[in-house]
Amino acid sequence: QVQLVESGGGLVQPGGSLRLSCVISGSMSRIDNMEWYRQAPGKQRDLVATITRRGTTVYADSVKGRFTISRDDAENTVYLQMNSLKPEDTAVYYCKADFYLFGSYWGQGTQVTVSS
Predict the structure, then answer these.
(1) Conformation bin of residue 62: beta by default, left when phi > 0, alpha when psi is -120 to 50
(2) pLDDT for the residue 13
(3) Cα–Cα distances in Å, from 90 out to 13, 39, 97?
(4) For the chain, is the Cβ count within 10 Å smaller at the N or the C terminus?
(5) Dist CA 4 CA 85 (whole Å)
(6) Could you read off the pLDDT of 60-101 as tens digits, one per residue?
(7) In 10 A of CB 49, how many CB atoms?
């Protein structure tokens, strides 16, 4: 079955950087959009960044200029490079993959905490 496994989260000081990875296994068809979402305690899950199969990227206003999404289709992996992190970036980060004809699948999430 399809599995998405995130890694790379952790505790970082304000201004620091982290790189999240999401490895997708058990692919049933080509993967169209890959996305990162985040959910802070008591808040809804919000879209952070999207990358299309052609490499087009879209970012939430709150992370523009600081975060970069990328993908490696040969490795079925999507990345989120996060720079200049702020305390308000603290959240559980989830990856999501949209499979052609088969719908969307989510990872289990990885915690990112930005604190001094």
Answers:
(1) alpha
(2) 98
(3) 11, 9, 22
(4) N
(5) 24
(6) 999 999 999 999 999 999 999 999 999 999 999 999 999 999
(7) 22
Q: Which two tokens stand for residue 12?
A: 């970082």
pLDDT band for 105, please (50, 70, 90 cuts).
very high
Q: If DSSP states are collapsed to H, E and C, what string results for 29-94?
A: CCEEEEEEEEECCCCCCEEEEEECCCCCEEECCCCCCCEEEEEECCCCEEEEEECCCCHHHCEEEE
First to last CA, the chain: 40
Instruction: Provide CB contacts within 8 A for 65, sequence distance 6+.
Output: none
Residue 20 token pair: 């999240």
In degrees, rounded to 5, the angle at the alpha carbon of residue 38 between the alpha carbons of residues 33 and 42 is 145
How big is the chain by its Cα radius of gyration, in Å?
A: 14
